[in-house]
Request: fold
Amino acid sequence: MKIAVIPSGFKESLSSAEVGTAIQKGLHEADESLNIQVIPMVDGGEGFAQTITQIKNGQLYHLNAEDPLGQKRKTFYGMFYENKQKVAVIEMAAIAGLRHVPSNQRNPLHTSTYGVGEAIIHALDHGAERILIGCGDSGTSDGGVGMAQAIGARFKDYKGKTIFIHGGGEIDRIHDMDLSHIDPRVLNTPIDVAVNWSNILCGPKGVAKVFGPQKGASPKEVEHLSDNLDHLARLIKRSTGESVAYQQGSGASGGLGAGLIAFANATLHPRFELIQQYLHIEPVIAQADLVITAEGCLDFQTPNGKIPAEVARIAQQYDTPVIALAGTIGQDAEFNYQSGINAFHSIIKQPSSLDDSIEYASKWLKECARNIYHSIQIGMKMNQTKSQTHTTKQRHFVL
Reply:
């Protein structure tokens, strides 16, 4: 039997590669003869750069770049060759992710994407001919203004004085933009950005109102941030002609999606569609007898572009059954049946603390995969017995 294991990671616990390895070990404990291919998947957030770089046999580059609070921090991006082109893969979360902001300092009014721009310049300095950026798990909501300053954009106040903006809370200080100093290499290098396609910059469902509270903003601060991003959208429209306010994906990573469009001439893509271009999972699914996928929490949000549902939609085209494993099964998880997931299981067998769930996730994944395959073996045996019985009855009838 050929089994394709195509999981996402368990946030703050296991990378997608570690999830895949645990599932593979469990399956092989049940049957050593299984032909298993593991393809770790990423959605643009944590693990994006490392996973793709490793799969593409690339190399990690290290640099010191500003974290969301403006402190220099050692970080990285990847570089690999695709179609004889040198591609840099930058993970927003590794530079300006929420995990880099201590819980007592979380406030999107005061965090910046400046380090993302530094990574773009560093990649170009090292020969990047195309840049792939993953937007996810951000700790910022500055509309990409920080990133823009790092690549050369200048912002001016109402007196015409150049000012430095740190965080979404200061965007209302901007009266005008001078984009003539942006590094021309940025504008002339293809930049593809993997985003959550449903995230938009402005309005009642804009990024400030949806994600601002998760990043530490109070209700009053959320309104201030939302007004500032509206202001930024108007400035961008006036300066560049780009209408980013309600463009799909523009709200990704606190509006970094909008900033990359406006200031870096980037192209946004639904994250799974873009990642699939580099990881080529469809041929593997087409040849598999079974697909096993996984994510930390499977719930009503999973069908909205998350990896298990996207994997299942491809598998549906080939009538390949899909089983999803999850740390927890959340609200309205049954919606996933409509995406092509045939069955889902929680790896947690008893009430457990978050710390225990994180510590034992790998062990529980392995055990769950092993037990699921034992169940599959029972089904196969029952089907075989039924077929043999049916054949015997047919023979008796002929006699």
Observations:
- DSSP finds 14 helices and 14 strands in the chain.
- Residues 172 and 231 are 7 Å apart (CA to CA).
- Residues 361-398 form the longest helix (38 residues).
- The chain has a mean pLDDT of 92.
